[in-house]
Amino acid sequence: MNYVCQLPAEMKLPAVKKGTVELLRYSSNTYDDEARVLHKKAYVYLPYDYNHDKRYNVLYLLHGGGCGEDFWLKWFPDTVNILDNMIEQGLCEPCIVVTPTYYHGKNDRKHANEFRTENFWKELRYDLIPVVERKLSCYSAGDVSEENLIATRDHRAIAGLSLGSMTTYRSGLYHNFDLFGWYGPMSGCTGPFGNRDEEVRRICETLQEGQAKGLKLDCLFCFNGDKDIAFEEHKEIMEKAEKQCDILRKGENYDFMIIPGGRHDMDAWQLDLYVLLQAIFR
After folding, report:
1. Residues facing 42 on adjacent strands
2. 160 contacts 186 by C-beta, under 8 angstroms
3. How far apart are CA 77 and CA 94, in angstroms?
4. In this structure, is residue 166 part of a structural domain?
């Protein structure tokens, strides 16, 4: 897989053909011992000329710790310009990008981050994906039965940065491998206090069990800068996983992009997104 180490500056400039960003509201559940109903929201990017007569791939894109669903598309509106320009220039196919939050609300202080990274899979599977793909024109075509969501997994990707990268592994890969074909973890896997060998085991086990069920990995594309605080643990985990699991084939369905001088910041993550969108849904 070919990639660049710097985002072209013109990608952040306004495009001629502009997509739109909409707010999506939905109900969920805490999926904990309180089992409270939550009124959640996510932002949705729709490409230029979006219409219901077409089918679109969907990227579910997660923020980092302490942020929210507005991080990618509202805090950093030039992310929208990047999406617009990439689609306008034919660098990626028109797609839908959904930016939810794994937090239960603005004042969510009850749970530790480990809980959030694991627990979000239920909201993804049972609440968010069905609402998104019932409402919008996706390859699931409004049929959000589990059987059909599994059948259309090749048209669904999940990615995230920092704590969202950990959530991509845990809630996306480990718990929902049957719903996602494409993965883009950016900046980390287990965090500074996690068990690295346990993450390696879970990656390998998930891929092996999935293959036994006829579920292939379309692509696991990892990203990290060599000056990023999460670089060493992420690199070590994936190097071990690649050696221990022959399903991971570098350059085919797996890669690890290292940004020279890249740090734990939005410059790196927007570059990651730029590269990821050129690799997925192909």
Report:
1. 24
2. yes
3. 18
4. yes
- Looking up tokens 């997104």 gives 273
Per-residue confidence band for 60, with pLDDT thresholds at 50, 70 and 90:
very high
End-to-end CA distance of the chain: 12
Instruction: Look at residue 210 and tell me if it is in a domain.
Output: yes
Query: pTM score > 0.85 for this model?
Result: yes
For residue 20, what is the domain's CATH number?
Answer: 3.40.50.1820
> Which structural domain, as residue segments, surrounds residue 46?
9-279
Residue 119 is assigned to a structural domain of this protein: yes
- Rounded Cα distance, 280 and 282, in Å: 5
Per-residue pLDDT tens for 165-203?
Answer: 999 999 999 999 999 999 999 999 998 889 999 999 999
1 within some domain: no
User: What pLDDT, on a 0 to 100 scale, did the predictor assign at position 236?
Assistant: 98
Nearest to 185 by CA among 197, 173, 200: 173
Q: What is d(CA 78, CA 12) in angstroms, rounded to the nearest whole number?
A: 5
- Round to whole Å and give the CA distance between 162 and 234: 10
Q: How many domains does the chain have?
A: 1
Task: State how far Cα 237 lies from the chain centre.
Answer: 19
SS3 215: coil
What confidence category does residue 105 fall into, taking pLDDT thresholds of 50, 70 and 90? confident
What integer pLDDT is reported at residue 108 of this predicted model? 81
Q: Which residues pair with 221 in a beta bridge?
A: 255
- Residues of the chain with pLDDT > 90, as a percent, come to 93
Of 94, 82, 80, nearest in space to 22 by CA = 80
